[in-house]
């Protein structure tokens, strides 16, 4: 596997010395994938992204993004960012916003026009490109926000709640855009509450709770562990089969047998037993945990394990070869975002 694009540890953040937003967090984001960061409100998702982008300062962060220490200036030129609740001046048109952000990102003017046109097309805003943002719907502004995040042709793009306010058709288009970005070899880092949306696009996820990662990995693997087979049947299940299936650890509810199995082979004797009793099998299907189930389960487990331990205010010295994000700049009054 290629090197991860982000590999950080010891990420701690206290706002005003009190609110402990991130606690000794470690995170690895593989290259060229769609990565989803999930967590309840206030879990620390936006704070983490802002630290990676040097918008918020944190002490003692170890690790790298795109092979360089966090805070490396040149690396920031290779990332794109759509902040949560992004606002652009309402007197600008969509095209103006792209021209403006192209300038900020040092995109040469001879490329900026072509790039803007391509991005306006990509996000479905070509027809409204020359009208002012104040006439745009929330979803249209969000589309422009995604386009500006791509203006510098980034290797990694951070999208904080990208489909906020976007209609269902628009969400599908956004998913297609993200998949296209991944297929072009970019890494897409999404913060979102919309678990159904994330489930449809993410290759990898991490679940954050109270400033710590409580679950992470490939989405398919995380949910495969809970794979089950379900048999729907018609008729009454004889008592001896009820006993046998219960002893086998199957769940029996209302003409449905749910079995914890990873392949269909194990279901065959159950089907045979049902048919031997003249029961009609009406449906056989494979199910697995949804991302929502995984999320709720992870957060519940974290709650049962109690609050995370307090991390001492003083961070350990950085490891050789891993420069911390600007330590001298730890904010005293909150962040600078
Ligand atoms: N500028 C700030 N000053 C003080 N506290 C802050 C600041 N920004 C965030 N916090 C606090 O840090 C914690 C983490 O906030 P953060 O916005 O990172 O969470 P989040 O997971 O992105 O939440 P949401 O899903 O609601 O957007 C919260 O307790 C929040 O109140």
UniProtKB/TrEMBL annotation:
Q: Where is the composition biased (Pro residues)?
A: 306-319
Q: InterPro entries under this entry? A: AAA+_ATPase, ABC_transporter-like_ATP-bd, ABC_transporter-like_CS, P-loop_NTPase
Q: Where is the ABC transporter domain?
A: 6-235
Cite the PROSITE patterns for this sequence.
ABC_TRANSPORTER_1, ABC_TRANSPORTER_2
* Region ranges (Disordered): 300-337
Molecular function GO terms recorded: ATP binding; ATP hydrolysis activity
UniProt keyword ATP-binding, yes or no: yes
**Pfam families assigned to the protein according to its UniProt record, in alphabetical order:** ABC_tran
User: Which UniProt keyword terms apply here?
Assistant: ATP-binding, Nucleotide-binding, Transport
Q: Where are the transmembrane segments?
A: none
Query: What family classification does the UniProt entry report for this protein?
Result: Belongs to the ABC transporter superfamily.
User: What name appears for this protein in its UniProt entry?
Assistant: ABC transporter ATP-binding protein
Origin organism is Persicirhabdus sediminis
């Amino acid at each position: 596997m290629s090197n991860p694009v982000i590999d950080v540890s010891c990420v701690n953040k206290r706002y005003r010395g009190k609110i402990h937003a991130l606690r000794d967090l470690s995170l690895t984001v593989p290259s060229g994938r769609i990565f989803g960061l999930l967590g309840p409100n206030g879990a620390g998702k936006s704070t983490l992204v802002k630290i990676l982008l040097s918008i918020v300062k944190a002490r003692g962060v170890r690790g790298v993004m795109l092979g360089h220490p966090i805070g490396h200036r040149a690396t920031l030129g290779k990332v794109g960012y759509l902040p949560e609740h992004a606002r652009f001046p309402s007197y600008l048109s969509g095209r103006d916003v792209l021209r403006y952000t192209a300038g900020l990102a040092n995109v040469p003017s001879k490329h900026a026009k072509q790039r803007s046109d391509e991005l306006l097309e990509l996000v479905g805003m070509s027809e409204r490109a020359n009208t002012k943002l104040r006439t745009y719907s929330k979803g249209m502004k969000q589309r422009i926000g995604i386009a500006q995040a791509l203006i510098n042709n980034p290797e990694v793009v951070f999208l904080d709640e990208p489909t906020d306010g976007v209609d269902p058709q628009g969400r599908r288009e956004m998913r297609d855009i993200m998949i296209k970005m991944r297929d072009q070899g970019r890494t897409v880092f999404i913060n979102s509450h919309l678990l159904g949306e994330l489930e449809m696009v993410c290759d990898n996820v991490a679940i954050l709770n109270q400033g710590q990662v409580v679950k992470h990995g490939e989405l398919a693997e995380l949910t495969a562990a809970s794979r089950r087979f379900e048999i729907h049947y018609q008729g009454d299940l004889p008592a001896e089969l009820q006993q046998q299936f219960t002893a086998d650890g199957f769940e029996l509810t209302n003409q449905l047998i749910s079995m914890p199995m990873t392949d269909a082979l194990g279901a065959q004797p159950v089907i045979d037993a049902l048919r031997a009793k003249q029961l009609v099998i009406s449906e056989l299907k494979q199910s697995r945990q949804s991302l929502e189930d995984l999320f709720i389960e992870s957060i519940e487990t974290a709650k049962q394990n109690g609050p995370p331990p307090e991390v001492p205010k003083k961070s350990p010295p950085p490891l050789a070869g891993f420069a911390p994000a600007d330590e001298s700049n730890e904010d005293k009054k909150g962040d600078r975002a």
